[in-house]
Amino acid sequence: MVLYVGGTQLTGGDNKPFFRAWLNQGQTLSSGSQHLMTLNGETFDPDSKWDASNYRFTPAVSGKYYLKGMATFATSSDFNHGLIAIYKNGSEIALATTEHDNYNAVQVSTIIDSDSDDYFEIKAYQNSGGDISLVAEEKKTYFLGFKLIV
C-alpha cells in the first residue's frame, strides 16, 4: 500500500528502519507518576533498532518517522486520568489522555523528524489512587514506528 499526503509519497518504498514492540509480561504502574513502558516482546524489528534492555527505538537513520503507541489498563475500575506520551531524547513530543472506564486503552501517534543519534521512548501514567497493571498482550499494549519516505 502506498500512502500519499498532499501529493507526497510517504510509504510504499524503503520504510526502514521499522519496529513493533509490545508488552509480553506484566507491568504495574503506581498511581501518580509516569513509567517507562517495559515493552520486551517484538513483532518485528529487522534492523535491530528496538532495544528491549532500555526500551528505546534508536533509528540511526535521519528522516521523518511515524510513531504510535497504545496502553490498555488492566482494570474495570473508573479513574480520572490515564495517559501515554512519546519522548524524543528524554523530552515529551506527543501526549494522549483518557478518562478510564472499564479496560479502556489510550493511543498516541505523531510524525517527527529524527537525526541519526535520536532515540524514542514511550511512558504511561495513571492516577487511580492505587497500583494498576498494563495488559500484556501484543494487540493491547505496544509501540511501533517506521521511516516515512519524503
Explain what you see:
The protein is mainly beta. Helix content is 0%, strand content 52%. The chain has strands at residues 4-5, 8-9, 18-22, 27-29, 35-36, 41-44, 50-51, 56-57, 63-72, 79-88, 91-100, 105-114, 120-126, 132-134, 142-147. The chain has a five-stranded antiparallel sheet with strand order 6-3-15-9-12, with no helix packed on it. Strands 5-13-10-11 form a four-stranded antiparallel sheet, with no helix packed on it.
Tags for this model:
single chain; about 150 residues; mainly beta; Jelly Rolls
Helices and strands, with pairings:
Elements: E1 4-5, E2 8-9, E3 18-22, E4 27-29, E5 35-36, E6 41-44, E7 50-51, E8 56-57, E9 63-72, E10 79-88, E11 91-100, E12 105-114, E13 120-126, E14 132-134, E15 142-147
Antiparallel strand pairs: 1-2, 3-6, 3-15, 4-14, 5-13, 7-8, 9-12, 9-15, 10-11, 10-13
